[in-house]
Specification:
Helix content is 0%, strand content 50%. The protein is globular.
Amino acid sequence: QVQLVESGGGLVQPGGSLRLSCAASGIIFSFNAMGWYRQVPGKQRELVAAITSDGITNYADSVKGRFTISRDNPKNTVYLQMNSLKPEDTAVYYCNARPPNPMYNYWGEGTQVTVSS
């Protein structure tokens, strides 16, 4: 059974930082591309950042230079370091695992990030 468990969300003031973690189980973590997505009510889920099994990263333009995605394969964990947070970063953040087989795509339950003074 595949599980992706996010943690690290919360309330932070504008300009602050948070680090999200996603612990994976039930998959061969090192084979998977991992990603962070976010969604606000009434809008589509959007890609924030992704990292391939080889460590190649990709970011949404809105977070480049502020967010950093990384992975720790021995710990089966992917991280999202978020700095210089803005109110528009407020959303539910979801962890995604994408195995080499395109038939499969896994999601976590999400963690709320709220940026507000």
